[in-house]
Amino acid sequence: MIGVDYGLKRIGLAMTDLLRIIASPFGTIESISIKKNAVKILKIAKANNVSVIVFGLPANMNGTEGRMSEDVREVIGEIKVLSSDIEVATIDERLTTAQAERMLIEEIDVSRKKRKAFKDKIAAAFILQTYLDAHKS
Predict the structure, then answer these.
(1) Any idea what the CATH number is for the domain that residue 33 is in?
(2) Beta bridge partners of residue 4, listed in sequence order
(3) Is the dihedral of CA 89, 95, 99, 105 positive or negative?
(4) Which is nearest to 11 in space by CA: 51, 41, 39, 35?
(5) Within its chain, how far is the Cα of 51 from the centroid?
(6) Number of domains forming the structure of the chain
(7) How would you classify the pairing of strands 23-30 and 10-16?
(8) CA 9 to CA 81: how far, in whole Å?
(9) How many angstroms separate the CA atoms of 71 and 68, rounded?
């Protein structure tokens, strides 16, 4: 499985182990356009034999969906058009980026400059781990 933290500038990615127990940061890709982003995500998914892509669905604190939720839904739509053999799921991602930033500052003491490189893929790992924990059999 791949977890996706979708952003306007960067897209964070996380991957599970084969047993789907632990989500680990995988990488980031630069965001270009809805269609090109969908193609990139799908290419990475297929190269890693992924069967499920989990997108964090950004919601406002009051539960309503904002502009980024629309973009995420558009990317999901593109992926579904391009590939019918990969399942796509969403999970509420409120505060995952803030959690990632806090972890980088408090637990790992990463400088502000280096945080940008890690924040998005760690947020993707939080998204994917939340999904895994919610769907344990």
Answers:
(1) 3.30.420.140
(2) 13, 55
(3) positive
(4) 41
(5) 15
(6) 1
(7) antiparallel
(8) 23
(9) 5
Cβ(56)–Cβ(4) under 8 Å? yes
Give SS3 for 93: coil
Nearest Cα to Cα of residue 34 among 64, 86, 70: 70
Domain around 93: 2-134
On whether the CB atoms of residues 104 and 122 are closer than 8 A, the answer is yes
Asked if residue 108 has pLDDT above 70, the reply is: no
| Main-chain dihedrals φ then ψ at residue 136, nearest 5 degrees | -65, 140
Distance (Å, rounded) from C-alpha 127 to C-alpha 96?
7
Render pLDDT for 50-94 as a digit per residue (tens, 0 to 9): 999 999 998 766 777 778 889 999 999 999 999 999 999 999 876
Output the average pLDDT for the chain.
85
pLDDT at 95: 57
Residues 6+ apart with CB under 8 A from 90: 54, 55, 56, 57, 72, 76
Q: 44: closest CA among 3, 80, 10?
A: 3
Helix axis angle, 112-134 relative to 96-106, nearest 10°?
A: 130
